[in-house]
Structures are given as C-alpha cells and as structure tokens.
Amino acid sequence: MRAPAGWASSEGTLARELVMSGHGLHTGRRVQVRIHPAPDAHAGHGIVFRRVQAGREVATLRVDPALREAQPLCTMLRAREGSNKGKGVRTVEHLLASLLVGGIDHAIVELDAEEVPILDGSAAPWIAAIEACGRTSLARLKRFIRVKKPVVVSDGTLAQRREMRIEPCERYEISVRNDLKGFGDMHWEGALTPEVFAREIAPSRSYGRVKWALPAIVAGYVKRTPVLRGARLSCTASILGNRVIGGMRLPEEFVRHRVLDLVGDLALAGAPLLGRVSALRPSHEMNYRLVAALLADRDAWEWAECTSDNEST
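Now predict its structure.
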C-alpha cells in the first residue's frame, strides 16, 4: 500500500543520540534520558525502555500493552516477571506519541530514574529534539495496524459517559470530545499526520485545577503512590477558577492534550493506525481499554505494510 500522506514508507531510527533532562511530574525526581538509535532494527527491535542506576542496567522493558499498569494521571509500564519484575517506567505517553509521529520505530530509551521527564508539560520539546537529531530510514518497510471492523468500549453513567470507538479508515483520524466545568464542551477532529501533530497537538500541556493538586499530592503520599509531586506552573496549564494562569497556548488546549495522551497510549500497539478513533471524555484507562480490546480481537485488525510497488500485503 502507499503510505498515508505525511507518513514515511519505511521504518526509521534516530540519526544520532538524543539527550534530555528534567523532572518527573509525579515523582518530582530529576531524570536524564538518552535515546539511542536502535542497533538491530532489522530484527524488529521496536521501542525499548532501559532503566540504569549508577551506570548499571537494572531493567529493560519493551513497549507492550501487556506491561501497562494503571496509575493516576499517567501511563506506566511495569515488568511482570523475570529479573525485571516490579521495575517500571511511568509517564511514557508524551514520549511515545512523539516517537510514533516522528517516524522513530526503533530506539532504546535509557533513563536514570523511574519517570520520563515532563519538560514543559507538552510534547513540543520531544518533537523539536527528534527533528534536531534527524531520522535514519531503514530497509525495513513501514507497517501500520489496519482496522477491519469497529471496536467500542464504554463506561460511566449517561450523564458522565465515557466512550471510545475505533473503526476502519484509510488514514489515521481522531475525533475527541471533552468537557470541563467553566470551559464548556471542547472538540478536536482531524487526520493525524506528523505535521498536524507538531502544529496542533504537541504544544498542548498537561492541565489541572490548583485546588485539586494539594489533596491529590497528600493522597499519593498516604497511598505511597507518587502523584503530582513535581507539578509546577512551568509544566502544567494550571486552572484557577475559570481561567488558566498565564493563558492557553492553543484554542481549547485541554481537549488537544487529551488527543496527545490518546496518541501516546495507542502507540502501545507498536505502530500507527489506519483507522478512525472517536473518543468521548477519554482517559488513560479508557485509552488502554480501547487498544487492548482492539488487539484482543484478531478479526478486527491486520498488519498493512508499505511496499515498493505500492501493493498492500
């Protein structure tokens, strides 16, 4: 098949090492990330997270929905068995979204703490860093996950219903609706391409109400689950009353950030989608439920590979 507009027809890795540092949104800990070009992309390396401590590797986790663990306000991967059991990496969604749309199919993400840095709360710094490093095209042809039939998951009451749907489409399309008291109904819809993502989605920041933050942090300490310990005005769109301190970066920034999280969570599938995703009040949990339901139904999807003669396989 011909690659959808804006997407590469071959898989890729970084042209050189990418280095970023910052603090975790939830743990508050400083962390340095080094993203290395994959050494063995021809074997289907994929995206792999590698935890290091004092220069020594302590865990390796391949991106896989089976390793996803429910966490408040983020997506986490945690090893279930073997020598890595119990080790994890949290808040992976912004980076996974950026690697996916940046055409980086194979890479090793090495970090010296448990959480990927939140940076400015958006994916824009990751996109800029990936572009600065450059992309090396590989001989391996690009694969997409083609949706063959609708898959739907839902939850909640009629008044606060959450629903996620994915259905066949010849390109990656997304429609997200969300509401927030004081800001009304918000909607973003469009075809997802690297250019659209970088311009309309990546700059949107994590957000939350100031009055919710302190109780959430305290509850996290009580439950021994780090929540928002690193939240700052510099890395969140902080809501005070019915306004955002410092203003919004983009129109209806909140729903655009929901799109960003959705793209990152669906990247757990391991490839871009050929399908239309419709989401009403999405969350990390609902995003995961959708990708898990899709992959569990082998009649609902198939691999579609770009070929040199533009025939699908």
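The two ends are 7 Å apart (CA to CA).
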